[in-house]
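# nightly structure sweep
# worker-07 picked up a monomer target from the shared queue
# config: single-sequence mode, recycle default, output format = structure tokens
# input follows
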Amino acid sequence: MSPALIALAVAAFAIGTTEFVMIGLIPDVARDLTVTIPQAGLLVTGYALAVTVGAPTITALTGRFPRRGLAVGLMGLFTLGNLLGGAAPTYEVLLAGRIMTGVAHGVFFAVGAPIAMSLADRERGAQAVAMMFAGLTLAMVIGVPFGTIVGQSLGWRAPLLAVAVLGCLATALLRLLLPREIPHARPAGLQSQFAVLAKPRLLALYFIAMTGFGGSFVVFTFLAPLLMEVTRVSPAAVSLALMAFGAAAMVGNFGGGRLSDALGTRRGLTAALVGLVLALAALPFSAPHVLTMFANLLLWSACCFCLGPIVQSGVVAAAEEVAPDAVATASGFNIAAFNFGIATFSAIGGLLVAGPGIMTTPWGGAQLLAALRLSPACSSAHGNRGACRFPEKGPVL
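# output follows
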């Protein structure tokens, strides 16, 4: 493996850890900063909104910047955001730190994938991207559960400060290992880049990314209180649940491309969405029992993270046909769509928790996903096979 890819994977690991570790710590943050659970949930929503805004806009505005310097600068900003959050005296300062970190996250992944592809032969570009994003999925298995344990033992600030240290390491590795000159295509003007939003095939895929992946966060944002209040597990068991969720996410992430290759895009998306609806609909019945709850988590996670590589590959393939001078921006908008879904549906979950109660969140998520399966956008996205064509080798995450 290229040493530069290792640096990118370390950065992705740090980003994945800080994005999702807050989910396991929401009860601790709420208690320490004397805010409600839904207010603490806004730390997930605000982060996702920052990614949503940052990914397409800052990516487009920095299109002429040298790639190496941009990647190093983004990880520096990421590190500062975590330091600010870890030292935050108030909820508002913590939210500001999360927003800063989210902006760095969105742009880093939008530019990181092309950097990874430039480090490999053309026929191995998808494998290089998958290797970089392996850091993100590994964070779900190791970083998030371990960070949750640390946060529950030493306080919620400790994981953010630990990720800041990891961010310093990633920044140093990127500066040391990335080539000084990284080729990238001269970007089109801003108007041309944002014209991707007028392409129906891309819009349909963005809608699926937003609703299909984001719908899970009606529940996932409040998974820790759900497990402790309904399943009646200890805080330590929440970390184990997150570890199981992360392991299944890794399986789903790498399995998404294989599923699409085996069944085709339309049937692959259908299988993932149907499995996700069933998993969320079963949560109210499985949640009171530890074994059934953990089994349900595995199905839920695998189906949810299966969607990522299917949709992302479809976006890249469609953009190469309908917007060849704005592929990076089209990819950035897809990252934005995923995170806009997280922000929107986390907020909906917060309203459900504050209103009818936490056990209504699974029904809300399942209904949203069932509506997506029947929507015209879903049919449009995979009705034209060209819109969702896949690379021959490996998933593009």
